[in-house]
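Quick one, probably user error.
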C-alpha cells in the first residue's frame, strides 16, 4: 500500500513538472518572434511576393515598413485573394488602413521537419503524385469549386508544373484515375531565399464525394516528406480557428500552433471572415446558403425568414421573391402538385412522349404483386409522395421483400407505387429557365474493406465523412434496407469486410441517404437533355431536377423516374447552378447586367 502511495506521489510530481515545462515553452514561443529580425532579412529577397494563381502570398517579414506592405495588398487583382503572412505586428498594420484590411481569423500551425517521422499507414485505393497534366489542373479546380475556394486558371497550373517554388500534389483513385484531393506546397528558400529555411502548405482540399478515408492526411504527409527531403526546417499552414476537424488532423500529425498572423484585404471573397453574417445565416442548410451567398455577391438584399426551413426573401430593383432553397414564387402551385404526386408526374410527362417505366399502385393482393414481379423480375417500391429518398427500395426480386418495402413506404405515404426496375445509373438533370444547367450521375454509397473493421464500422465512418462534406445533409441510415442490400452480398452488419473488397450498402443513389454526385454535364447525350427540357415544359416549371435512369450518360437510352420541384443546387460543381437561379429571378443582376451594359448579351 505504501509503495502505491509513493508511486502515486511520484506520478503527480512528474505531471506537475511536465505541465510547468509545457507552459514555460508556450510562454517562450509566444514571446519569441517566429521570423528573423530586420538584420537577417538582408540575406533574403526584399518585399517578396509569390503569385499562386488564386492570389498572391505576401511575405510580410521581408517588407521594411507597413506602408509598403499595405501598398502591396492594394495591388490585389479582381476575383483573387491575396494573403500577407508572418505579420509580426498586426495591430500596427491594421491601423495603417483599417477600412481596407482585416486580421484573418485563422491559426498558424507549424510542423518541425527535422523531427518529423513518416506515418506507417499506406494509402488504400489511391496514390499521391505530382500534378502532371492539364486534365489534373481541371480536376483540381473542380475540387476547389466544390469547397468554395478561389479557382485557378488551368494554364497557370500547367505553366508552373516544373516550378522550383511551388509544388502541386494530387491524390488519384487507382481504379478510376479520378482526382480525389490536392495540396499546394511553397518552398520559401526557392521563393525568396528564406534564411529560416521554411516552407508552407496551402489549399488542402478533398473532393466531398471521395469515398476513400485518409486522403487529406496522405497529402499532408507526402508534402511534409517532400520538404524534409529538400532540407526545410519547418512546414507552416493556416487554418480557420473554428475548423476543429482540420485542426484535429494537424495536431495528430505533430503540428503545433505558433504566434504568426495573416492579414487580408476586405473583398467579396473574404466577406464572411470580416463582416457580420446575415441574421440566422448559420442555421441555413447548404442548399439555401449557396443561393444566399450568390445573392450577396451580386448585391441582392437577403432577408432570412425561417432559417431551419430554408426560407429567405431576395429583393433587388423593386422586385422581391420569396424562396425556399431553389423553390421560388415563380413555381406555380399546379406545377408543385404535379411533382408532389409521382403517379401524376408520370402521366403528365408520358403525354409529352417521355419514356416512363411501367407502374402499378401497391395492393394487398399477392397474386397481382407476384404477376407484376414475374413480368419485370426486379422492381422499385416507393411512396407516391415523399422526398430525399425516404422509404425507396430498389432492385427487389422477391414477394417477401416487396411486402416489407410496401410496409416501410406506407410509413411515409398511404399510397405506394411499384415500378419496373431499369438497370443502370441514376442521372439528375437540373433545368433552369428551360435550359440544362447541370447533369450529374448519382451513385449509391458503398464501403471498401480493410480486413479489420466490421461493415457497420465502415458504414458509420463513411457516413461521418459524407455528413462533414455536405454540412450534415448526407448520411447513411443503418436500417432494414441497408441490411437487405448487405444480404444480397452475403454479408451482415457485424461481418469484417476483407481488404479492398467494395460493397454497395444501399441501392438508392439519393444524396441524403449517402449517395455521391459526379458531374457529367460536358458529356451527357443530347437526347437526355432534350427529354429533360421537354419534361420541364410539360410540367411548366421554371426550376426542376429531372431524374432518369440511364445505361450511360453518354448514350440516349433512358427511363424517366421523377421530377423534383426543389432540386438541391449544391454539389453540382463546377456548374453555375446558383448563378443561373439568380439570373432567372433577377435578370439584370450580376454578370448578366455587366454583359448587358457592354452590349454583349
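Nope, works fine. Designed sequence:
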Amino acid at each position: 500500500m505504501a509503495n502505491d502511495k509513493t508511486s502515486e506521489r511520484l506520478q503527480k510530481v512528474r505531471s506537475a513538472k511536465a505541465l510547468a515545462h509545457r507552459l514555460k515553452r508556450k510562454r517562450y514561443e509566444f514571446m519569441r518572434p517566429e521570423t528573423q529580425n530586420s538584420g537577417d532579412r538582408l540575406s533574403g529577397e526584399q518585399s517578396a511576393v509569390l503569385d499562386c494563381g488564386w492570389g498572391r502570398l505576401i511575405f510580410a517579414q521581408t517588407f521594411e515598413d507597413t506602408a509598403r506592405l499595405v501598398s502591396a495588398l492594394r495591388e490585389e487583382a479582381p476575383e483573387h485573394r491575396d494573403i500577407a503572412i508572418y505579420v509580426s505586428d498586426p495591430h500596427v498594420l491594421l491601423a495603417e488602413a483599417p477600412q481596407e484590411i482585416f486580421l484573418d481569423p485563422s491559426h498558424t500551425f507549424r510542423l518541425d521537419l527535422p523531427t518529423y517521422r513518416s506515418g506507417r499507414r499506406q494509402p488504400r485505393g489511391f496514390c499521391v503524385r505530382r500534378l502532371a497534366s492539364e486534365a489534373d489542373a481541371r480536376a483540381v479546380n473542380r475540387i476547389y469549386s466544390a469547397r468554395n475556394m478561389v479557382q485557378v486558371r488551368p494554364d497557370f497550373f500547367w505553366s508552373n508544373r516544373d516550378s522550383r517554388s511551388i509544388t502541386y500534389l494530387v491524390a488519384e483513385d487507382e481504379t478510376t484515375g479520378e482526382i480525389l484531393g490536392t495540396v499546394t506546397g511553397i518552398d520559401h528558400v526557392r521563393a525568396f531565399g528564406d534564411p529560416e529555411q521554411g516552407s508552407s502548405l496551402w489549399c488542402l482540399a478533398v473532393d466531398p464525394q471521395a469515398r476513400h478515408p485518409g486522403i487529406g492526411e496522405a497529402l499532408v504527409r507526402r508534402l511534409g516528406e517532400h520538404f524534409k527531403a529538400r532540407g526545410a526546417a519547418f512546414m507552416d499552414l493556416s487554418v480557420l480557428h473554428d475548423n476543429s476537424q482540420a485542426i484535429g488532423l494537424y495536431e495528430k500529425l505533430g503540428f503545433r500552433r505558433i504566434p504568426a498572423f495573416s492579414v487580408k484585404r476586405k473583398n467579396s471573397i473574404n466577406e464572411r471572415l470580416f463582416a457580420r453574417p446575415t441574421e440566422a445565416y448559420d442555421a441555413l442548410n447548404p442548399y439555401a446558403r449557396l443561393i444566399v451567398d450568390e445573392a450577396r455577391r451580386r448585391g441582392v438584399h437577403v432577408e432570412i425568414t425561417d432559417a431551419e426551413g430554408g426560407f429567405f426573401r431576395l429583393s433587388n430593383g423593386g422586385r422581391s421573391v420569396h424562396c425556399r432553397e431553389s423553390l421560388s414564387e415563380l413555381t406555380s402551385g399546379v406545377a408543385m402538385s404535379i411533382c408532389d404526386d409521382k403517379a401524376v408526374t408520370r402521366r403528365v410527362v408520358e403525354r409529352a412522349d417521355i419514356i416512363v417505366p411501367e407502374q402499378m399502385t401497391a395492393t394487398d393482393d399477392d397474386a397481382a404483386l407476384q404477376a407484376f414481379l414475374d413480368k419485370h423480375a426486379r422492381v422499385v417500391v416507393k411512396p407516391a409522395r415523399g422526398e430525399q429518398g425516404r422509404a425507396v427500395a430498389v432492385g427487389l426480386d422477391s414477394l417477401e421483400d416487396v411486402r416489407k418495402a410496401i410496409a416501410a413506404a406506407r410509413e411515409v405515404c398511404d399510397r405506394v407505387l411499384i415500378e419496373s426496375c431499369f438497370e443502370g445509373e441514376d442521372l439528375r438533370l437540373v433545368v433552369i429557365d428551360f435550359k440544362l444547367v447541370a447533369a450529374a450521375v448519382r451513385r449509391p454509397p458503398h464501403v471498401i474493406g480493410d480486413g479489420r473493421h466490421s461493415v457497420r464500422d465502415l458504414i458509420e465512418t463513411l457516413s461521418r465523412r459524407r455528413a462533414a462534406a455536405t454540412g450534415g445533409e448526407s448520411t447513411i441510415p443503418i436500417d432494414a434496407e441497408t441490411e437487405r442490400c448487405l444480404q444480397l452480398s452475403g454479408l451482415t452488419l457485424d461481418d469484417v469486410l476483407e481488404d479492398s473488397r467494395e460493397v454497395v450498402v444501399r441501392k438508392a443513389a439519393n444524396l441524403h441517404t449517402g449517395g455521391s454526385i459526379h458531374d457529367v454535364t460536358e458529356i451527357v447525350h443530347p437526347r437526355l437533355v432534350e427529354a429533360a427540357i421537354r419534361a420541364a415544359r410539360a410540367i411548366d416549371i421554371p426550376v426542376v431536377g429531372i431524374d432518369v435512369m440511364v445505361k450511360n450518360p453518354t448514350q440516349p437510352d433512358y427511363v424517366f423516374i421523377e421530377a423534383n420541384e426543389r432540386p438541391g443546387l449544391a454539389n453540382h460543381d463546377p456548374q453555375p447552378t446558383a448563378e443561373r437561379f439568380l439570373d432567372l429571378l433577377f435578370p439584370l443582376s450580376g454578370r448578366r447586367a455587366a454583359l448587358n451594359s457592354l452590349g454583349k448579351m
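Residues 27 and 418 are 68 Å apart (CA to CA).
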